[in-house]
Amino acid sequence: MSYKKFDQEDLKAIQGMIKENERILFGEEINEEYSHDELSDTASFPDVVVMVKTTEEVSAIMKYAYEHTIPVTPRGSGTGLVGASVAMENGIMLDTTLMNSVLELDEDNLTITVEPGVLLMELAAYVQDRDFFYPPDPGEKSATIGGNISTNAGGMRAVKYGVTRDYVRGLEVVLPDGTVVEFGGKVVKNSTGYALKDLMVGSEGTLGIITKATLKLLPLPRKAISLLIPFPTLEQAIRTVPFIIKSKTIPTAIEFMQREVILDAEKYLGKKFPDNSADAYLLLKFDGNSTEDIEKDYESVAQICLEQGAIDILISDTNEREESIWKARGAFLEAIKGSTTYMDEVDVVVPRSSVNEMVEYIHGLYKEVNIRIKSFGHAGDGNLHAYILKDDLTEEEWEEKMKDAMDRIYGKARALSGQVSGEHGIGYAKKSYLMESMDPATVEIMRGIKKAFDPKNILNPRKVCQI
Fold first, then answer.
1. What pLDDT does residue 227 have?
2. Where would you tag: which of 90, 131, 258, 316 has the fewest CB atoms within 10 A of its CB?
3. Is residue 126 part of a domain?
4. pLDDT at residue 321, as a whole number
5. Helix, coil or strand: residue 278
């Protein structure tokens, strides 16, 4: 695709659309952080960054970009891990972080309408203060809601409550030509034509730019209790998970972790974890409206864990204990990142019945490829995170060993009927694995959808399924 090179004339046109020109960054004014996301080594600078505040501004810029065939990359907090918010063709970057207002809390319909730049942690705190609950709980709490929707973010509570898609009722979207449309709404049921709202969720900014979102809320659970369960080995811990699932007592979260990652988190946070003596742990969370209700659930699950070889059952029933455990869990990514010179990640998801086989395969893989690999993940929903560490390897050694490890992990996931990504998306960095895992006919359907929305391919080009 041939794009127009952004120039001074284009800059003047955009300056005419934005009242405060300090919200426009051009050339050397653009911070280095705008050239990459949180993890991916994918790097490319936009020609201009526009910090938009309104749907009207987004629409005007998209209309101009469409008319002049200038590529546009939407961006929130930049916390992604696959290069989805990197301006691979330069051009215009639309920073939506200033679109950060809560527009409406509708208590009658149990919905909240927000702009895309509202942070996940801000939304969670806002509704909790009003006795409501927004269940999606991705690890990066400083991510924007627009970014969460664009990647269909999952998180630790997905095993019980589902993922972001399950809580999106309606979207206001600016299409690549600047047209403003609404998909969905406040209705609970909707069989009115194609599910275009659901198509936007997880589209990684390639089909349209989300400017408002109406989200489903639940009543706030009154009580939460966590169980930290040490096991002698990782194999014993992970092989317990299918028994928990079969018990039909589904915890809010089922996480697995290894001692070495816990030690990384302790060093990163400067605080001790409640227990770090065992080789592996399951971390379970239960919520409900009373301690009695929760106890009925966790007692049966605790018994299953003991029968499968758990060393102990550590009950976390105070806010202080809860916070210390889950804060450490939330720090795993940054802790692992801080323990090496560079890392890349795999975000595979497999059927829940295969999670133990996948975890054990990844755990033993370092011996075959001779590279450090650390993993943790959402054992209850089959979404596993494996981090391949560069340490002191040369660039040539790193590229060879990293690719070998990734090829093997994705290959194993395919063999277990899994998928490339459970929650982080495809972006730019994981495209080759998407192509390998999908039927060519399916990829062509995806490309056809992209063309229907964006015939000029100006919106977030070279992402997901685009060459």
1. 94
2. 131
3. yes
4. 78
5. coil
Greatest Cα pair distance in the chain: 71
Residues facing 384 on adjacent strands: 377
Q: Beta strand 92-95 with 72-75: parallel, antiparallel or unpaired?
A: parallel
Query: What is the predicted pLDDT for the residue at 446?
Result: 97
Residue 56 lies in a domain: yes
Instruction: Quote the pTM value.
Output: 0.94
Whether 297 and 344 share a structural domain: no
Task: Identify the segments of the chain with pLDDT beneath 50.
Answer: none
Closest CA to 145 of 101, 84, 188: 101
Claim to verify: residue 192 and residue 283 sit in the same structural domain: no
Instruction: Look at residue 297 in the predicted model and tell me its pLDDT.
Output: 87
CATH number (domain holding residue 123): 3.30.465.10
Q: Look up residue 314 and give its two tokens.
A: 């550590």
Report residue 453 as tokens: 């929305």
User: Which pLDDT value is given to residue 244?
Assistant: 93
* CA–CA distance, 80 with 65 (Å, rounded to integer): 24
**H or E element in which residue 367 lies:** helix 355-369
Q: Specify the residue for token string 């300056």.
A: 15
What type of residue sits at position 88? M
pLDDT value at position 249? 87
Angle of helix 355-369 relative to helix 234-246, nearest 10 degrees, comes to 160
pLDDT of res. 69? 98
- Residues spanned by the domain of 150: 102-219
Element (H or E) spanning 225, and its range? Answer: strand 223-231
Three-class SS of residue 124?
A: helix
Q: Which of 333, 357, 375 is the last residue of a domain?
A: 333
E runs forming strands in 289-410: 314-316, 343-346, 373-378, 383-389
**Cα 125 off chain centre by:** 19
* Overall domain count for the chain: 4
| Same-domain status, 385 and 320 | no
224: amino acid identity, one letter: A
d(CA 365, CA 372): 9
